[in-house]
Write a structure and sequence with these properties.
Chain B is mainly α and 429 residues long. Chain B has 17 helices and four strands. The chains are: A mainly alpha (318), B mainly alpha (429), C alpha/beta (415).
């Protein structure tokens, strides 16, 4: 039971971290109709910038400055890259961000090399907040929860209660009308892209010390971010939150509970062939849940797309 | 500018291949025949084989992206599965062979087709993002399965076999590289011709119509879903052939043949070459293979150059390298290509110097940052110098900036010449 | 289009020819990742080879009375396919010796391709000197005459590791976790069978595999390990999977030993830092660490002076270079690889650099039999630390001629 509570908390942290990435991506998608393949690369840039800044000034300055730098780079790329490609259609846009992801990974390696960076959580948060049945819960993870929840509330407030948010929401559905009303839609796009990438950068700053800061970190998270927003429904903030948490818990529980195919098959009345390594079904019999844990989100996505192409919370089809 | 997608298919005719269309194929066949006499080293043969496989794979990918408007992130699945099945067929037959090696790709194609039929049944119901995301999901699932189902995929060691164990084919055992080259080349021609003919059949043309406007195609009485499915299956078939050719050449298939990196790189190859042209993927495959295999012998940061090349292609030449060549067709037909010779010649030197010096800046920075102490000496373009000194870097930057300004300065001249060359009739008003 | 193809190939092949037309050194092709996620390991290995060839062969007068060694790097991007292409390029350049180590998958592809190449092209045969790929199959069912392994294989290391664990009465419950592929499985099955034989009282409280390179957060695994009440952990993980798993376990308050194969260098030592002290153990071949012999200290200092960011992480590389030099001198030729292979086979070599351990290239399977040690991750003074972090490896236990008694299923076919 105590392990179950620990897993709930762990899955919650993973889910919220995923949400920080997804919220920006889903906003960008719903405005511009482009799935930003490079989104996780901005996450990586956030971690590397924060690492570099933390060498000079410590963790906290990096927490503020690194996302800002990432956001400015993001806005710059929107203005001079994406907008240029926009006129050719969505497929070249997507391919542009795909190429950008490769390029950013190469650039990171060009400057920082290929090894893992020794980017650490600040010492002030380096203690165990509490522990459940011998499992410690670091204070840093509590901090992560608060940052992610804070972001969610701020976003929700901006999108639903402020004038800027109204414009963004209107531009989501009726870009031409909003443009005709005199709003500068390209500027809104640039702003949304900048803020979205800055949030990815912030996620990187926070996740870097926990999940590691290395050139493969973007690829590791890259496609799972799309999967999440597709499951949640493109353009839906609540959907992104729900899907992030679902995937966070799915992965945590799949890794934690060693459900073995052998037990299931025996339970169904099959007999295990002996010796197992001579059987054609050896891989099926030895399969365990942790083995397939990381691919469960993809399976979920395919099912969702086939059954309900607009995603769990999405209003319109993609 | 004419729309690039219509350029290669322009001459509408009754017959499938009129004589003037057959000529390029004959030239290509002769060219492929004599190629190994020009480049006869073992590595050149291997690289050419690798190119041929990539060409078949990229052409099959372009049946989806270019002709059908379907962006796939999991095309390696069909090539990989075709390859794995071919390898198993090869191993299964090795004790008691009843065919010879040149027929193995048929099996690869059929298995690729089989999986395309199965997966296409649900993935091609919709186009656009839904299709793209399903292809990503399927790609990830199959790649993950390849490490889990060891009995079929062989885990990370993969599955290997010996191509010489089938029946001899007119005295050829297919041990020597050159025999394998001819096998691959013949299949390259067969597959390319097959895909070319497919694009000219009614069903191939309807695929274009569905790509451009789904609703209109529906009103014409074509189920967009079925059209996409059929294109998808045809593409899977040819990808499977590419997989079998891979099995024959490398005699091993591993998880790498199925993973997302392979799927991603074929997208890169195809787009680099130009999705709107039949020859686009061919050019893309040749350039990409050379970059990957040969450039990486000379520089560690080849992938950085590839990334820069790719991103700038998307930004500046969205019709790919072939598009860049194709825009010269109009001046050529107008007989005004000569107008462009002088401005191109003027820009040639600054362009070459610019590219080389920009690369030099990157190389020097990289060397200065990552080389060992006492290894300050670096060699670039046959010049040896100290990478930690400021002077070479300054020279490279000055050269790069200077040639950039020279190009900017020359650009209006080129633009004028270009307008002139593409302008019908006499001098521009 | 045709002219582009021709031009491009022309450039390519001209380039290949140009690099092939150098002096008459004994060239050794280094085929390992120099770009991509594993490039750090590959590049560091290349530096160790270049340094070893320079210091231990060329500065001592070379082989065959004055011929130098030259290391020619080839980037295989850790891809089996690219490795096979680069192998062909290397053979075209007249190279007869291939060294590779990262990834058993690549090693499997190479050993298979080299075997076929040598059968089909007897005039350009090559030798495969495997310095790091430890999949036991390479010297068992997949062995061949052209392959030599200089690292201790996974079974041998586990044999040594379980010898040491068997002497530790505090360990009653063991947790085994690894990456879901051949090596991870080999480690797990060897651990289970060898612990069962040497310490039947140790309970295996967990034995599981996780997907390789796909786990973002190892916390759930760490929770399971704590919940199982394990006293110690065995893992064959490497790269970011090693770091992620190790950090998660330590962060969760686990204090028992974590026995590893690859928890050092390439940024991992630095990233563990203080946290890993007291828990992380590592099994490897090699010599004393930190080195005690003056020659070894001098060699390592010279290396660090030349490559301040590098590590001497694979001391077996010096064995590869020295044993190859000995074999070439003994055979009296560098071009007849059969003669060189015959000289290597069964060769006894006294490593005078790192320690005075004798080692033997076992003739029956071409596996180098050598001492295997258990090291602890701890504070180490520069320059003998790793990743310039102030931390490094310290020698703890040693098993002489480890794995000598382990049988092999190799049926060597000699030409």
């Amino acid at each position: 039971m105590s392990l179950f509570i620990v897993n709930i908390l762990d899955g919650f942290v993973t889910g919220l971290l995923l949400f920080m990435l997804c919220s920006g991506l889903t906003l960008i998608f719903s405005m511009m109709g482009v799935l930003n393949f490079a989104h996780a690369s901005f996450y990586m840039l956030g971690a590397y910038f924060a690492y570099q800044i933390s060498l000079l000034t410590g963790f906290w300055v990096g927490l503020i400055v690194a996302p800002v730098i990432v956001g400015v780079i993001g806005a710059f790329i929107e203005r001079y890259g994406l907008r240029r490609v926009h006129k050719y259609g969505h497929v070249p846009e997507l391919i542009f961000t795909f190429g950008l992801a490769l390029l950013i990974e190469e650039i990171v390696q060009f400057f920082w090399g290929k090894s893992q960076m020794a980017y650490e959580a600040p010492e002030i948060l380096d203690f165990a907040a509490f522990s459940i049945a011998g499992n410690t819960f670091p204070a840093y993870k509590v901090f992560m929860i608060f940052v992610a929840l804070g972001i969610f509330l701020v976003l929700l407030y901006i999108l639903t209660k402020t004038r800027v948010g109204m414009t963004i929401q209107a531009a989501l559905s009726y870009p031409e009308t909003v443009q005709n009303l005199g709003h500068n839609v390209p500027l809104v796009f640039m702003g949304v892209f900048g803020v979205g990438t800055a949030m990815a950068g912030l996620a990187g700053v926070i996740a870097g010390p926990v999940l590691g800061t290395f050139p493969g970190m973007a690829v590791l998270l890259g496609s799972i971010v799309f999967v999440t927003i597709v499951i949640g429904g493109l353009g839906s903030l609540w959907g992104a939150l729900a899907a992030s948490l679902i995937i966070g818990w799915l992965q945590t529980f799949a890794a934690s509970y060693n459900v073995r195919m052998e037990d299931i098959l025996t339970g169904l009345g099959f007999t295990k062939p002996e010796p197992i390594w001579d059987s054609a079904w050896q891989d099926l019999w030895t399969l365990t849940l942790p083995q397939i844990g990381p691919i469960l989100p993809y399976l979920l996505m395919i099912i969702v797309l086939v059954v309900r192409p607009q995603g769990l919370f999405g209003k319109r089809e993609t | 500018m004419s729309t690039p997608s219509s350029t290669p298919l322009k001459a509408g005719t009754q017959r499938l291949i009129p004589l003037n269309h057959a000529l390029p194929w004959i030239i290509a066949a002769v060219f492929l025949l004599i190629l190994p006499y020009i480049f006869d080293s073992r590595s050149a043969l291997t690289i050419m084989n690798q190119m041929a496989i990539t060409i078949v794979f990229a052409l099959s990918y372009n049946m989806l992206l270019g002709q059908g408007g379907m962006l796939s992130f999991g095309h390696a699945v069909y090539m990989g599965l075709g390859g794995f099945f071919s390898m198993h067929v090869l191993n299964w037959m090795s004790d008691d062979p009843w065919i010879s090696l040149p027929f193995l790709p048929i099996f690869g194609g059929l298995f690729g087709l089989m999986f395309a039929i199965m997966i296409g049944a649900f993935s091609t119901r919709r186009a656009g993002t839904v299709f793209a995301m399903i292809s990503l999901g399927v790609g990830e699932l199959v790649a993950a399965m390849s490490v889990i189902i060891v009995i079929f995929f062989g885990g990370e060691e993969g599955v290997s076999g010996d191509r010489t164990e089938l029946l001899d084919f007119f005295g050829m055992s297919f041990g020597p590289q050159r025999q394998v080259y001819y096998l691959t080349a013949v299949w390259l021609l067969i597959a390319a011709l097959g895909m070319y003919l497919y694009s000219r059949t009614p069903i191939g043309r309807i695929a274009n119509a569905v790509r451009d406007n789904e609703e209109r195609a529906e009103f014409l009485g074509y189920s967009q879903r079925h059209v996409r499915w059929i294109s998808f299956c045809a593409s899977g078939f040819f990808a499977g052939i590419a997989g079998a050719l891979f099995a024959i050449n490398f005699e091993i298939l591993t998880e790498e043949n199925l993973n997302l990196a392979t799927s991603g790189s074929i997208l890169l190859v195809t787009f680099l070459g130009g999705v709107g042209f039949f020859v686009g993927p061919i050019i893309g495959a040749i350039v990409f293979t050379l970059l990957q295999t040969v450039l990486s012998l000379y520089t560690e940061i080849w992938a950085l150059y590839l990334g820069i090349l790719f991103v700038s292609t998307v930004m500046f030449f969205p019709f790919g390298l072939t598009g860049l060549l194709a825009i010269h067709i109009q001046p050529w037909k107008l007989g005004k290509i000569s107008h462009l010779v002088v401005p191109y010649a003027k820009m040639f030197i600054p362009a070459v110097v610019g590219v080389l010096s920009a690369a030099a800046v990157l190389e020097i920075l990289f060397h200065a940052r990552h080389a060992g102490l006492g290894e300050e000496e670096m060699n670039l373009y046959g010049i040896t110098f100290d990478s930690h000194a400021a002077m070479p870097l300054i020279i490279a930057i000055v050269l790069a900036v200077a040639s950039f300004f020279a190009l900017v300065k020359l650009a209006p001249g080129l633009k004028a010449a270009w307008d002139e060359a593409t302008h019908m009739g006499g001098a521009k008003q | 289009m045709k002219s582009i193809k021709k031009l491009a190939l022309g450039v390519a092949v001209a380039g290949l020819a140009a690099t092939g037309a150098l002096a008459e050194n004994v060239k050794i092709a280094f085929i390992d990742p120099l770009s991509g996620p594993f490039a750090a390991t590959g590049t560091n290995g290349l530096h160790q080879y270049e340094f070893a060839a320079e210091k231990l062969v060329n500065e001592k007068g070379g082989v065959l009375g004055g011929t130098n060694f030259e290391i020619v790097p080839f980037d295989n991007k850790i891809s089996p396919k690219e490795s096979l292409i680069q192998l062909q390029v290397a053979i075209d350049q007249g190279i007869r010796y291939i060294v590779q180590g990262n990834s058993s998958g690549v090693a499997n592809a190479l050993t298979d391709a080299i075997k076929k190449h040598n059968e089909r092209n007897p005039d350009s045969r090559v030798l495969f000197l495997n310095y790091s790929a430890v999949d036991p199959a390479l010297t068992n069912e997949k062995c061949n005459f052209w392959h030599f392994r200089f690292d201790a294989n996974a079974d041998i290391k586990m044999d040594a590791l379980t010898d040491v664990i068997a002497q530790n009465p505090d360990i009653k419950k063991m947790y085994i976790i690894g990456q879901d592929y051949s090596f991870g499985k080999a480690v797990a099955s060897a651990a289970v069978s060898m612990l069962g034989a040497k310490r039947p009282d140790i309970e295996i409280v967990g034995n599981e595999l996780h997907p390789i390179g796909k786990v973002k957060d190892f916390t759930p695994y760490a929770r399971k390990i704590t919940a199982s009440g394990a006293d110690a952990v065995i893992t064959g993980n490497w790269g970011s999977d090693m770091l992620g798993l190790g950090k998660a376990i330590i962060d969760n308050g686990f204090e028992g030993p974590i026995y590893t194969y690859y928890a050092a260098a390439d940024g991992i030592t630095a990233a563990f830092g203080e946290a890993g002290v007291g828990t992380l153990k590592l099994v490897a071949e090699g010599g004393d660490a930190p080195p005690e012999k003056p020659e070894a200290q001098e060699y390592q200092k010279a290396f660090k002076a030349k490559y301040p960011d590098g590590n001497i992480s694979q001391s077996r590389i010096t064995n590869v270079i020295q044993m190859l030099a000995m074999a070439i001198d003994e055979a009296g030729t560098a071009t007849d690889v059969v003669a060189v292979a015959n000289a290597l086979e069964g060769m006894t070599f006294n490593d005078s650099l790192w320690s005075n351990n004798p080692m033997t290239m076992r003739a029956s399977d071409h596996q180098l039999i050598q001492d295997v040690h258990i090291y602890a991750h701890t504070q180490v003074e520069a320059p003998f630390d790793m990743d310039n972090s102030g931390f490094g490896l310290k020698y703890e236990n040693s098993i002489a001629a480890a794995g000598e008694a382990l049988p092999t299923s190799c049926e060597m076919e000699r030409p």
